[in-house]
Write a structure and sequence with these properties.
Blueprint: H1 16-21, H2 24-29, H3 39-51, H4 61-83, E1 91-94, E2 97-102, E3 105-111, E4 114-118, E5 121-127, H5 141-154, E6 158-164, E7 172-178, H6 179-196, H7 218-225, H8 237-245, H9 247-267, H10 289-300, H11 305-310, H12 316-327, H13 331-345
Parallel strand pairs: 5-6
Antiparallel strand pairs: 1-4, 2-3, 4-5, 6-7
Helix pairs in contact: 3-4, 5-6, 7-9, 12-13
Length: about 350
């Protein structure tokens, strides 16, 4: 069954940064199938669907905790802007796709997670469910384009955008756009949309990460394949730094390349001489530590709790989350308590990771 693209095969906010910086990428992507969805992406979709109001979506414990944290942070943000009089009996609009028009024709769209607005003020929230860093709100073209869409759809002249990412250290970042900022961004966005219709200009950069055309983009591949020509002393310091900056995009390119090879071999097992798909290794996972202990205690008696605990591991993040919940405290307080208790009772080991390269 063919799915309908709700974006109508037109540019959208999720690719706004790439549209602005690499206008030729949009045309190059046309006709390329979406890559297979990862489990992390599927988990994020379930969380977003639940937050949008579909309470029948089945969530595991970690996903439910993500939902709870998103709602908690959202509540704090909304209450903060109510307290200063910016949001008075706000209207909430969830998961709505809004369009940008040019001469009456749809040219660009975006869909936010939550928009709370009152009068000419809006608070726009985007949930990120992953653990990887994303561009902060004040440097995020996706959020800026959503702010433009919200301002034009609801006649807003002051929009706060928030990226809520519970698993990141800060948990959320904010950016503020007033009328002049929104007018300027709208002009830049419309210029980029128009340029994408005709331009073949392509510039590789961090925006390549989610581009479907990486596997056939000469500019990106020239960046990525430069690695294969590396010989000690053959590259200048600046060339090495450029490759270092492109590390995440290069890694993503090879992952996408592998996905493309798998897709071709699934369609035709003999498509690529010398390469075949072999079955993945079988995996096993204990899905409930509680039920496992129940089984152990029933089979061997309840006197083996110490051996059972020595067979279990708990990560620092989960330990801090448990303390936070039981102590009803902030993440910072939970971290402090974990450190104090761990040092006092001797069950927290501290170490030092290897040196990391950092741009200055």
């Amino acid at each position: 069954m063919q799915t309908i693209d709700e974006r109508l095969n037109l540019p959208s906010a999720s690719s706004a940064e790439r549209l602005v910086n690499c206008p030729g990428s949009w045309a190059l992507e046309q006709g390329i199938k979406e890559l297979d969805q990862t489990e992390d992406a599927a988990s994020g979709d379930r969380v977003h669907a639940f937050l949008a109001g579909d309470k029948h979506v089945p969530l595991d414990d970690q996903e439910q905790e993500m939902v709870n944290q998103c709602e908690r942070i959202t509540g704090k943000l909304v209450d903060a802007y109510k307290a200063i009089g910016k949001l008075t009996d706000p209207v909430c609009v969830s998961e709505k796709r809004v369009w940008l028009f040019n001469a009456g024709k749809k040219v660009f769209s975006g869909r936010w997670d939550r928009l709370y607005y009152s009068g000419t003020f809006g608070l726009l929230i985007d949930y990120k469910t992953g653990r990887n860093d994303v561009a902060e709100a004040d440097r995020n073209w996706q959020l800026l384009s959503l702010a433009v869409l919200a301002s034009e759809a609801y006649d807003l002249n002051h929009v706060i955008v928030a990226i809520v990412q519970p698993w990141s250290k800060g948990q959320f970042t904010l950016a503020e756009y007033e009328a002049s900022d929104l007018i300027k961004a709208s002009s830049q966005l419309r210029t980029a949309i128009a340029k994408a219709q005709t331009s073949q200009e392509r510039r590789p950069g961090k925006w390549c990460e989610w581009c479907k055309a990486k596997t056939k983009c000469a500019e990106f591949q020239g960046n990525a394949l430069a690695v294969t020509f590396y010989q000690q002393g053959a590259l200048t310091n600046q060339a090495i730094l450029r490759l270092l900056d492109a590390k995440s995009q290069i890694n993503k390119f090879y992952k996408d390349l592998e996905s493309e090879l798998k897709r071709r071999l699934k369609e035709d097992p003999n498509a690529i001489p010398g390469l075949r798909l072999k079955p993945g290794a079988k995996t096993r996972e204990i899905t409930s530590v509680k039920e496992f202990w129940k089984t152990v205690s029933e089979q061997f008696g309840p006197d083996h709790a110490e051996k059972f605990m020595s067979a279990c591991e708990i990560g620092i993040g989960n330990a801090e989350a448990l303390i936070k919940e039981l102590e009803c405290c902030s993440w910072e307080q939970a971290t402090w308590l974990l450190n104090q208790w761990g040092k006092s009772f001797g069950w927290l080991a501290e170490g030092q990771k290897a040196e990391q390269l950092e741009r200055v």
